[in-house]
Amino acid sequence: MLTMIIADDESIVRQGLKNIVRWNELGIEVIAEARDGQEAYELCQQLHPDILFTDIRMPLMDGLEVAMKLEEQGSDIRIVLISGAQDFNYAKTALDIKAEGYVLKPVIVDELYEVIRKVVNRIKLERKQQSEMTHLKRQIHEHFPLIRNNFLRNLASGVYVNEASIQNKLQYFQIPIRSDENLLVSTLQIDDYENRVEKMSEEDKQLLIFGVTNIIEEIVTNYNSGISFGMSENEFVQIYHQSALSNRKYTEISAEIALCLKNFLKISVSIGIGRPIDNISLVHTSLEDARLALQYKFYTGHNSILDISDIDILNDTPNEGIVPTDLYEHENRLMGYIKLGDAEGVAETINVIFDHLCSGRSMTVDYVQGVCFEMACIAYRTVQGLGESMDRIAEERSVVLDAIYRKENIADLKSYMANLFGIIAQYFSKKYNQKSAKVIRKIKEIIDQKYSGDISVAKISQEIYLTPNYLSMIFKQDTGETISEYITKVRMEHAKSLLKSTDLKILEIAEKVGYDDPHYFSKAFKKYSGIHPQKHRL
């Protein structure tokens, strides 16, 4: 029996709430009443009830203040708030303090029952889950009725088509659905399942699967909405009967399943919802729709609930995204940036490609993954053509292929591809920078040795066996000045030294630093240093 305290500053309201509701039928015992917020808080401290049913507006301390103080202390008391319609907007802050429910005055008994029933079910579910987790090892095999599950799996796979045969099996296995009622199928998957269980022992994996199965079954049973079973290691199917189809109740149930799995097992799940069917022999078609809807998790990401009726699937129209000619153009541009070691260009091109792949979300997952693997293969050939090994720069082809096909959403896939190509581009950037640094050092050595003679970019290029344009480009990029400017600087610095340390004539100094015309030397010196050579001596 759960315990509850009722708090309201009006005695008639407290008595009404206590007497009008058959609390014992809900498994609740009212153990105390409070006239104000302060008394409610003190009673909670003393009696530790399971539920506090409190008005918002009360003397000394209002209901929200009580709830916040209890939350600050880490209390697990469930809070249900009650107040007049005029406080509705104010009461929305109950969401911030994790209130379990909200009831408007005047109280409608059926609505009150529904709110309290949900709170009770959540408490029972949590306690049952905590209790059962200590016994999971012993209960795993006992809680998996294999024959019943095999029937449900075969039914969902379309093996059975005879209605009479299906109805007999439903009765034999005590499955609470009829063969002639309207039904709907949803399917649930644990997000990023392969990575999650990769390092788990088989026992821990089975415990996880059991926990997921148990929580789903509990919630579906509590709602009296249908059945749930495991279709495979990471596919959990729900078949909802007629009562869950009205007002799309199945979406609310799906949301509660996802929330409970997140709270209790700390896992994220995604759910696909199929189309309604009017005959149980068509269960497999609704399941196929649910699986198709779930594929769109690739675009929406983890923790998605996807209804096939809400998805505009363009089966009969061509993809509006990237077309082959565009793709080839982008791939060629991407490979060009890789060759240049341009990481920024690589990132921009990856963004463009994925913007096209995401446009309209009309492309299949297989197509998007295929495009990514094709780009990886082209990159391997490009790198090989440059005399390098992709396996040494990044990862082996098999590892890349496995990574591409294991990504569950397009955001993760884009991040992986951007990182892969970024690593390749950075490798070549570093390689080219190292090569350029050697070339620039050589250029400077030649100039330092031959500045006094007839030296030019063309003559330097002949010694290094590189084109004048290429030499000029990398020198300017690295030093910020042209080769001609550097030659002038070297000559002028030597000229300054000679002017200060010797009595040589201007004509002689000009010749020593590579100028045949002393007048041109004097003009160049003044432009470089701001003064005439003769004044530099003073």
TrEMBL record:
Q: Where is the HTH araC/xylS-type domain?
A: 441-538
InterPro entries, alphabetically? CdaR_GGDEF, CheY-like_superfamily, Homeodomain-like_sf, HptR, HTH_AraC, Sig_transdc_resp-reg_receiver, Tscrpt_reg_AraC-type_HTH
Q: What does the record list as GO biological process?
A: phosphorelay signal transduction system
Main location (coarse class): cytoplasm
Q: Which domain of life is it from?
A: Bacteria
Q: Where in the cell is it found?
A: Cytoplasm
Protein name, per record: Response regulator
What organism is this sequence from?
A: Cohnella endophytica
